[in-house]
Write a structure and sequence with these properties.
202 residues, alpha+beta, Lipocalin, 2 domains, eight-stranded antiparallel barrel
Length: 202
């Protein structure tokens, strides 16, 4: 059976329609992909520079740096004061400040100030007692460096400020925990006699 030109044309048209129906979506998608690839370099956003996540360090607020010092001695840090009648000095008042040593970890810094009132018991024993009493009123201070010594802190005097009436400045001092929030302060004054006082935390 021969196919006429009209039938042949009809078959070509039918084949074209079928091709469009079945292959059309694939061709359209392919064209879209090609266009998208071609336009991507021009419109693609530049990658943002890399950012390193900050490192997080967890610190326990209740923790303290380990100093190797007995915690009982760390509790001694603070200001103390006390007074008593001392031999040949009259009534004296001693103030002591204890701090951590910023330059020497594990050690302490100390400051002391002693002021004495007139020794009325010595009145009339020496000429010029008024001048002597006036000199006794001058506060005498020290700066000290302390090191742990068992349950105490042993201070050596770095510098004296002023000379006491007996001419014997403090050369060393030891402070030991006492009852409650008190400390026992014991000092030496070179070859002269030293002294002892119980000081209360201010």
């Amino acid at each position: 059976m021969q196919i006429t030109d009209k039938q042949r044309k009809f078959l070509w048209i039918a084949a074209g329609i079928l091709a469009v129906v079945y292959l059309g979506p694939s061709l359209v998608n392919a064209v879209r992909m090609s266009i998208a690839r071609a336009m991507a370099p021009a419109y693609a956003p530049k990658p943002s520079p890399a950012h390193l996540a900050p490192q997080t360090v967890t610190v326990n607020a209740n923790s303290r740096p380990s100093t190797g010092i007995d915690p009982k001695l760390l509790k001694l840090i603070g200001n103390y004061t006390g007074g008593a009648v001392l031999a040949d000095r009259g009534f004296c008042r001693l103030s002591v400040q204890i701090k951590p040593n910023a330059d020497l970890p594990g050690e302490f810094t100390g400051y002391s100030t002693m002021s004495c009132g007139p020794n009325f018991l010595a009145r009339g024993r020496a000429a010029g007692q008024a001048a002597t009493n006036l000199a006794a009123l001058t506060p005498i201070s020290t700066s000290m460096t302390g090191t742990p010594a068992g349950s105490a802190i042993a201070f050596t005097v770095d510098k004296n400020f002023g000379i006491p009436i007996d001419g014997c400045p403090i050369s060393s001092m030891t402070v030991t925990p006492f009852a409650g929030s008190q400390i026992a302060a014991e000092w030496k004054a070179g070859s002269c006699h030293g002294g002892q006082l119980i000081l209360n935390r201010k």
